Amino acid sequence: MKSIFETKHATEITERINRLREESTPQWGTMQVAQMLAHCVAFHDIPLGNILPPRGLLGRLIGRFAKPMFYNEKPLPQNMSTIPDILIDNDREFETEKEKLKQQIANFQINGSDQCSRYAHPFFGKLTAEQWGKGIYKHLDHHLKQFGV
Predict the structure, then answer these.
(1) Are 26 and 146 in contact (CB under 8 A)?
(2) Which end of the chain has the lower number of beta carbons within 10 A, N or C?
(3) CA-closest candidate to residue 20, choices 1, 5, 35
């Protein structure tokens, strides 16, 4: 399984982000491309500890059983629900969000995986740094495929 903490996988993701255009349209879902980029930035703020959404009841009940779907080889389902705190429904500036996301990915390379092991996912709960790395890659891959790159 690929991980955002491995340089070759981070490079591949960054190259795919660079292929996005402001006029890129989703193959599913309702987010526009700049909203998707902002959503990914906000998602990364969770393992970095910048935002700490509360765990919902459903996550507390079944999150640990569903946890492997976050970091296994199976693709994430299209149109799955998202964490309300990182749902982006307002207009965003494409180039700004694109650069923020690329900078976050670069920071994952600079600071390493240990930066992510302290904070729980609001649905899946406590994750190891390795699980976060795989899950972050998988989440980015999911959204880049959503926009055809």
Answers:
(1) yes
(2) N
(3) 35
